[in-house]
Amino acid sequence: MKQKKCFQEKRPLIRNFSILISFLFLACGQQESEETSNVHDSIITESTDTLFTNKISSEIDWDVALSFINDYRDMEDVLHAEEERLNWVDNDTRTSTNFKLIHRKMYEDARKADELMGLDYVAIFNAQDYPDQGFEIAETNEQDSILIVRGIDWTTFEVQLKLIYEEGSWKVDGAGDVNMQ
């Protein structure tokens, strides 16, 4: 009889403990659901912001790409050391972070593969030679933010460039053989 009485005294305690566990389980599930919802809302907001930004910035600044490619051409005539040219691109504010990383990696990988030769062409032009008088815009594609420039004095020489909107401005994200799929 004594055991039965003891069990009956603990019954409310067990029931309260069960209720507490159930409450915690439900609360954790609710919190996870809210966190998932917040993440989902964040993704939607970011996607909407990106679309909205692109709509606001639908006037793509093609001059960013044109000035970059012409300045790069001028730099190629002056800086002959590979590391100087890589640093020039790394420090240029008209190029995206992704572009800088891919560009440098291309040259470093080529140098590892062949220490003496390295990359045997200018990746941004996807060629060994380039026009003497620079480039002009030949064609633009607003939907893909891509433009083609052609040589002023070598009209059959063309380079394709890709722009992205990053950190509040248009930047070169691909050029020639660098990050152009």
Poorly predicted runs of 5 or more residues: 23-28, 30-57
Largest sheet: 4 strands, antiparallel
Give the overall average pLDDT.
77
Strands of the biggest beta sheet: in what spatial order?
1-2-3-4
How would you sum up the global shape?
globular
Radius of gyration equals 30 Å
Structural class: alpha+beta
The overall strand count is 4
Number of helices: 4
Question: H/E element string?
Answer: HHHHEEEE
- How much of the sequence lies in strands comes to 15-25%
CA(first)-CA(last) distance: 83 Å
> Percent of residues in helical segments?
40-55%
Question: If you had to describe this structure to a student in words, what would you say it looks like?
Answer:
With 181 residues, this protein is α+β, with helices and mostly antiparallel strands. Helix content is 55%, strand content 16%. The chain has four helices and four strands; from the N terminus they run ααααββββ. It has helices at residues 2-56, 62-78, 82-91, 97-113; strands at residues 135-141, 146-151, 158-166, 169-175. A four-stranded antiparallel β-sheet has the order 1-2-3-4. Strand 1 and strand 2 (146-151) form a beta hairpin. Helix 3 packs antiparallel against helix 4 (97-113). It is globular and about 45 Å long. The N and C termini lie far apart (83 Å).
